[in-house]
Design goal:
The protein is globular. A hairpin with a 6-residue loop joins strand 11 and strand 12. Helix 2 crosses helix 10, helix 3 packs across helix 4 (121-131) and helix 4 packs parallel to helix 5. The chain is built from 13 helices and 14 strands. Strands 1, 2, 3, 4, 5, 6, 7, 8, 9 and 10 form a ten-stranded mixed β-sheet that branches. The chain has helices at 20-23, 59-67, 91-107, 121-131, 159-165, 186-194, 202-207, 212-217, 247-259, 280-296, 347-350, 360-367, 373-382; strands at residues 7-8, 24-26, 40-45, 79-85, 111-115, 136-141, 171-179, 198-201, 221-225, 265-269, 311-317, 324-330, 336-339, 355-358. The protein has two domains: 3-296, Ureohydrolase domain (Arginase, Chain A, 3-Layer(aba) Sandwich); 311-382, no CATH class.
Length: 383
C-alpha cells in the first residue's frame, strides 16, 4: 500500500545535532520518508468534526515545533514523521484513512504515535486492528468515560460505545485511567462492572503512579485525552478542569507506554491551541512524547509469550477455592504477570490475553489469600 497518498507534508526545518528532529526522517517538500527499518512513526490527523465545538487541527504542527527541538539521549532508533492526514470528505473517510495507515504500520512492526485531532479518532485506531482481525486491549487516560449515546453519530463523547457495540467485536478489555467520578454517570460505572472492564479513579492512580504501569502494559492501544491533565499544567484543552494529573505524572505514564512490548499504537488528542496562551501545553505534550520515545528505547523485550525459562514462577493455592494462581516475574525488569486459565477451545481467540500484566501488590494479595480483582475479571472474560 502506498501510504503517501493519505498525507500532506509538514514545513521543513534544520535541526540541531542530537535533537529528535535531527534523528527523524520528516515528510516535507523533499519527499515521503522510507519506512525501511523505521521503528517509530508519527502521524498528524487534522480532524475535529468529532467535536462540533472546538477545532484542534493546528495542534499537531504546533506540538512538532516543541518536540523536535528536544534532545535525544538514548541509543539511536529510526523514526519517521509521515506528515498530516487531512480531513476526508466525511468523518468516516478520515476514519478509513487512519485505519488503513495504522494497519499498514502495524503489519510492518512500526510503533505508531497519532497526534490528534478529537478523541473519537480512537475509534479509527481501533478499526485498524479489526482489519488485522486482532483481539485487543484498549487503555484510555481521560477525566471521564466517553460512552455517550450510541444512537448518535460517532463523536468524542460516545466513541467508546461505538467500539463496544461494533460488530464483529475485537475488544477484549477496556481500562480507564484517571477518571473523575463526578464526570461519569452511575449507569456507565455499572456497565463497566458488568462487562468486567477495569476502571481506576484519579485519586487511586495518583496515590501510587507506579500502579499505572501494569495497566498500560496490558494495552495494545493507549488513548490520551489532555483533559486528564489539570488546568494549571495544561491550559490548552477545551475543558479547563482544576483537577487531573500533574505534568510529571502524565510523563511517567508516557514512559511506561513506551516501555511496553505489547503496546503498538498511542494517540494524544484534543490539544486546543487557542487556549494554550503561553505554549506551555504544547511543550508538555512534547515532553510526553519525549518520554514515550525514551521508554521505547528502554524496552526489555520480556513479555513472557513464548518460553518462560528466564522467569521466576510462583504458584499460590487460594484456600477454600479450586483456583491455583500462577505468577511470573521477569529476570530482566522485575515486572510481574499473572497466568489466568481459560478453556482449550478459546486458545486461538484469546491466546494473547491470558498472561495479564500485574504488580507485586497483586502477588502479595494472592499470597495472603485474596484473589486479585484483575485476575477475577480476566477469568470471567476468558471463560
Amino acid at each position: 500500500m502506498d501510504l503517501d497518498i493519505y498525507f500532506q507534508p509538514v514545513a521543513s526545518k534544520e535541526y540541531k545535532k542530537d535533537t529528535l528532529g535531527y534523528f527523524t526522517d520528516i515528510h516535507n517538500e523533499h519527499g515521503f520518508p522510507s519506512l525501511e527499518g523505521v521503528k517509530i512513526a508519527f502521524i498528524g490527523v487534522l480532524e475535529s468534526r468529532g467535536d462540533a465545538n472546538n477545532n484542534y487541527n493546528a495542534g499537531p504542527d504546533i506540538i512538532r515545533k516543541s518536540f523536535y527541538d528536544l534532545y535525544h539521549h538514548q541509543a539511536t532508533v529510526k523514526m519517521a514523521d509521515l506528515g498530516n492526514i487531512q480531513q476526508g470528505a466525511t468523518l468516516k473517510d478520515t476514519y478509513h484513512a487512519v485505519a488503513d495507515v495504522v494497519q499498514e504500520l502495524n503489519k510492518k512492526g512500526i510503533f505508531t504515535i497519532i497526534l490528534g485531532g478529537s478523541q473519537d479518532l480512537t475509534y479509527a485506531n481501533y478499526l485498524a486492528y479489526e482489519k488485522l482481525e486482532q483481539t485487543i486491549n484498549l487503555a484510555v487516560i481521560d477525566d471521564t468515560i466517553d460512552m455517550g449515546d450510541d444512537a448518535e453519530e460517532c463523536s468524542n463523547r460516545n466513541y467508546l460505545s461505538k467500539i463496544i457495540l461494533h460488530q464483529p467485536n475485537y475488544l477484549f478489555n477496556y481500562s480507564s485511567i484517571g477518571y473523575q467520578t463526578y464526570f461519569v454517570a452511575p449507569d456507565t460505572r455499572r456497565l463497566m462492572e458488568d462487562l468486567f472492564f477495569d476502571t481506576h479513579r484519579l485519586g487511586e492512580i495518583q496515590a501510587n503512579i507506579t500502579h499505572s504501569e501494569s495497566i498500560i502494559r496490558n494495552a495494545d492501544i493507549l488513548s490520551v485525552d489532555v483533559s486528564a491533565i489539570r488546568r494549571s499544567e495544561c491550559s490548552g484543552k477545551s475543558h479547563p478542569g482544576p483537577n487531573g494529573f500533574y505534568g510529571e505524572e502524565i510523563c511517567q505514564m508516557m514512559r511506561y507506554a513506551g516501555m511496553s512490548d505489547k503496546l503498538s499504537s498511542i494517540g494524544i488528542y484534543e490539544y486546543l491551541p487557542s487556549n494554550d496562551f503561553n505554549g506551555g501545553s504544547a511543550m508538555l505534550i512534547a515532553q510526553m512524547l519525549w518520554c514515550v520515545v525514551d521508554g521505547y528505547c528502554s524496552r526489555r523485550k520480556d513479555y513472557p509469550f513464548g518460553t518462560k525459562e528466564n522467569y521466576m514462577k510462583y504458584r499460590i493455592h487460594v484456600e477454600n477455592t479450586e483456583h491455583e494462581l500462577v505468577f511470573f516475574k521477569s529476570d530482566k525488569s522485575d515486572r510481574w504477570w499473572m497466568d489466568v486459565p481459560y478453556p482449550p477451545d478459546q486458545v486461538l481467540k484469546f491466546e494473547r490475553h491470558h498472561l495479564v500484566p500485574c504488580n507485586y501488590q497483586d502477588y502479595k494479595d494472592a499470597a495472603e489469600g485474596h484473589i486479585p480483582d484483575l485476575w477475577w475479571k480476566t477469568y470471567q472474560k476468558l471463560n
